[in-house]
Fold this protein.
Amino acid sequence: MNLWKKFLDVLYPNTCCFCGKTVRESVCSACAKTISYIEEPVCKRCGKPIRYQEAEFCDDCAKQTFCYEQGRSVWIHKGPVRWSVYQFKYHNRRCYGEFYAKEMCRLYGNQIKRWGIDLIVPVPLHHARARKRGYNQAAIVAEYLGKKVQIPVATRLVVRCKNTKPQKALNHKQRIANVKDAFYVRKLPEGTKNVLIVDDIYTTGNTINEMAKAIQNSGVNKVFFLTISIGQGS
Ligand SMILES: [Zn+2]
Ligand SMILES: [Zn+2]
């Protein structure tokens, strides 16, 4: 290790993405043992774990049709993962974004190739929220992922024109109404066929679906998504 790297390590020590402990790696050995990744069987649409392989779709996806084609996530949104994403989003732990992107690439790098993705687009924040927070967490992950899989990233292509309420507090109908027409798509790069949406959490899928609809209406073939975590659902 060179001196400069050593110096940086002292100045900005690595912290475990799941507990915040100062360690050399991105994940401490204790957390590495407890964090579990999503395993089969999963919903063919949204990637949420399902109980039986035969079911094909989770309850949510069996009930409704989505504009996106398919999507996957790295972890279930609970425990230390929930903590980690919260820190990343609200406590300026931007450095976690690189680790998330690395894991996305490791788990779904081949899937991204199979999907034939030619453009990566993070879910945008409304400008009022972006100003308050100072950064868009989804854009950070998207940029790192794009570098790893060598696919262009368009952080300004989609505009969130409606300052939506947090989806958490709303019921099913309100959630759909809340995000309706929330996105505006600027001019797509010539020849864009399949787009990958990147976001932090997938819960009901309404936000990603609304964004997928807007992208598709601007002439894209298929839209997919990758998120850091996904709600356990029903
Ligand atoms: Zn840890
Ligand atoms: Zn599903």
Summary: The CA atoms of residues 191 and 220 lie 9 Å apart. DSSP finds nine helices and six strands in the chain. The chain has one domain: 36-230. The radius of gyration is 18 Å.
